[in-house]
Write a structure and sequence with these properties.
It is globular, with a radius of gyration of 16 Å. The strands form two sheets. It has a five-stranded mixed sheet. Strands 6-7 form a two-stranded antiparallel ribbon. Helix content is 33%, strand content 12%. It has 203 residues and is an alpha/beta fold. About 3% of the residues have low confidence. It has six helices and seven strands.
Length: 203
């Protein structure tokens, strides 16, 4: 993170969905990590503080935490559009390829958790093309997004805004309890290991 270029995030009211516009197929975790580093280098070369998105989902459905939610993203087009706006991008070019099934599942899980946590209404979740004249996130993902948003279940996120950890609980157990993927839970709690302390609070 280039702290000198980072802008503090304002209260969240919108989540914008993107694609990376680079063809992608299911890949190993190490290959996905390498792709994340390439995205980061490309975005830093533009003079940005870090990766423009807050989260990236690879073709296997793994959710990668990118820019910290403490900071405004660089994904929607300008400062005004980025204010209070969480950026979620899926690896792939969905103008040319369909969205991978595991990506759809993870996107629904992540949107459900983020919208619950930040009280974002369904109409506050949109594709990038709703904010500016762009093909992003590609016609395949644009077609799928309404059903993904309609199908996400905010009730599966922890009740209230946090889950209070009891002795012996792990992130894996908490994810199973709420019927969500471990990856989506880790994505919104990026600094948590699987072993937790009693009294910890998980978003």
């Amino acid at each position: 993170l280039r702290a000198s270029k980072a802008v503090r995030m304002e209260p969240v009211y919108r989540i914008t969905v993107h694609h990376t516009a680079m063809m992608a197929e299911p890949m190993s975790e190490s290959s996905a990590a390498a792709q994340m580093r390439r995205i980061q280098r490309a975005h830093l070369e533009r003079g940005w503080a870090d990766i423009g998105y807050h989260y990236v989902i690879d073709p296997n459905g793994r959710i990668w935490a990118a820019r910290s939610l403490r900071y405004q993203g660089a994904h929607a087009g300008n400062h005004q559009l980025n204010r209070g706006n969480i950026g979620v991008s899926l690896m792939g070019n969905f103008s040319r390829q369909p969205v991978w099934p595991r990506q759809k599942q993870s996107l629904g899980d992540l949107l459900g958790m983020l919208s619950r946590r930040h009280r974002v209404k369904d109409h506050g979740i949109c594709g990038h093309c709703k904010l500016k004249n762009t093909e992003c996130p590609g016609h395949h993902l644009r077609r799928d997004l309404p059903a993904i948003v309609a199908g996400m279940d905010r009730a599966r996120a922890p009740v209230g805004r946090t889950h209070l950890v009891v002795r012996g609980e792990t992130l894996s157990q908490i994810a199973r309890r709420y019927g969500i993927t471990l990856g989506s839970l880790k994505a919104v709690n990026p600094n948590r290991g699987d072993q937790l302390e009693p009294g910890d609070r998980i978003a």
